[in-house]
Amino acid sequence: METADRPRPVPLASGRQRRGAGGRAPVRIRQLAAAAALGTLALAVLLTVEIGQERDGLATIADRSAPEVVATSDLYFALNDMDAQVANVLLVGDQQNLGLSRTQALNLYEQRRRQADQDVQRAASAAADPVSRQALDSVLDDLGSYEALAAQTILLDQQAPHAAGRPSTTTLARYRQATDLLKGQLLPAAQRLNDAHARTLDSTYRAQYAGLGRDRTLVIAVGAVALAVLLALQVYLTRRFRRLVNPALAAATVLAAIGLAAGAGLLSGERTHLRVAKQDAFDSIMALTRARAISYDANADESRYLVDPGRADQYQQSFLAKSQQLVALPGATLGTWNPDLAGALSAYQRDHHDIGWGGLFGTEFHNVTFSGEGAQAETTLLRLQSYELDDRRIRALAADGRLDDAIALDTSYASGGSDFAFDQYDKSLAALIAINQHAFDGAIAAGRHGLNGWTAYPWVGCGLVLTLLVAGVRPRLSEYR
User: Which domain of life is it from (predicted)?
Assistant: First the structure.
């Protein structure tokens, strides 16, 4: 009698077979753990390198390049006012009833001379590249020659008393030598030095700003890979060992995510601080300090116009050209400049987007960013307009043969005088520069403050993630021993 078929028992796997089936798991765990560790280390290295570069970049911009640009702009301004005061000495002569006395003009000249010497010393301590060194050498040579010619002019004028505004032919010839040297050699050399420093600042900023954007993308990419590997390891261990979560790995993943977010946020914040410092603040500072230097040059042209009738037309055209550098009004002449500006200002008052002028003040009005800056810029431009109106009165008086009245108006610091109007404009311009300088200093300080502690943070975070990673995988690996 046949018996029914029975299922055959399945033989149990041998110990060797069990080890073979599970042998791939430790390898996979080690591979994923090693990849996560490498990603974490790479993230720490990237952040450390970028933070060091950012710290160096901020130092270059804030401690070297920006002060160099300001110092060379200040040099240009001081040189122009030196020459203006020499012209004022010749204008007033021994007269005591005009707007400015000879002694006051000489004191102002000496003040500006010391200021120029200090600016040159600051520039010398910072000039490192060949272009800057060459420009500085030219400034040093020409400044000594100019000061000698200016001193000779003042001495000759003292030895030859004259009516107001009518120095001797010899004195005027020596003054022309000094002015020609200033305009033909000294000021261009000072401007070349300023331009070299400005280019260095701009190239440093561009490299730093682009690098922050590029490195932020790289940090996010590397951090995302590290997080993906950590998550993959978590999922693998969950499936392999039938456990819902590995606490140590979960903590490592969360910590890595926090570190990635903090690092990327830091680089974004530093990029913002850098943009505010350079584009929003220092671009205005450069335009406005340049405007201040040109304003003093224009003011000197006004005095030269009165003291040197033989070159009056030349100095009048030079004054107009500088007015156009400050506030460019298409097609404006000396007679139409003020009415054109009044019309442009009226349009601007109706619509602040309607900025109908160019030049350095056009640059500033297109870059108004900070609280109070717009109102201060308007005040400054209105005060420039007042000074320009006084200039036309001076020229009208001179044309009518009222030279003493023209000189008194030109050199007077009393209310209603041209130098009073210029001083009011200059103070307003200095306050406008100060708003942007305060914003620049604040952005640099915020950038530096944001980097505090970040020399250590990436490595502390990296050490914690690696420790948690080891704590998470070691118990699982020990099950295969």
Answer: Bacteria
- What's the CA gap between 471 and 350, in Å, rounded? 69
Token pair belonging to 313: 């037309």
Q: Model confidence over 356-408: pLDDT tens digits? A: 999 999 999 999 999 999 999 999 999 999 999 999 999 999 999 999 999 99
For the stretch 424-460, pLDDT in tens is 999 999 999 999 999 999 999 999 999 998 989 999 9
Structure tokens at 296: 């003093």
User: 76-128, pLDDT tens digit by residue?
Assistant: 889 999 999 999 999 988 777 777 788 888 999 999 999 998 888 877 766 66
Type of residue at 436: N
Establish if 12 belongs to a structural domain.
Answer: no
Residue 389 lies in a domain: yes
What pTM was computed for the model? 0.86
Residue 248, classed as helix, strand or coil, is helix
When pLDDT is averaged across residues 153-173 and rounded to a whole number, the result is 91
184 token code pair: 């033909």
Amino acid at 475: P
Q: Are 85 and 94 in contact (CB under 8 A)?
A: no
Q: Which two tokens stand for residue 365?
A: 């009005």
The helix (H) or strand (E) run that includes residue 30 is: helix 24-59
DSSP letter string, 301-359: HHHHHHH-GGGHHHHHHHHHHHHHHHSB-TT--TTTHHHHHHHHHHHHHH-TT----BH
Residue with tokens 């009415």: 339
pLDDT in tens, 18-70: 344 456 878 888 889 899 999 999 999 999 998 998 888 888 888 888 888 88
Residue 8 DSSP label: P
d(CA 370, CA 41): 41
Largest interatomic CA distance in the chain = 155
Task: Evaluate whether residue 203 is within a structural domain.
Answer: yes
77: nearest Cα among 282, 278, 300: 300
Query: 173 lies in which domain range?
Result: 25-475
State the Cα–Cα distance between residues 83 and 183, nearest whole angstrom. Answer: 10
Could you give the number of structural domains in the chain? 1
Closest Cα to residue 45, out of 447, 449, 451, 455? Answer: 455
What's 129's DSSP letter? S
Residue appearing with tokens 């201060």? 376
* 253 domain-assigned: yes
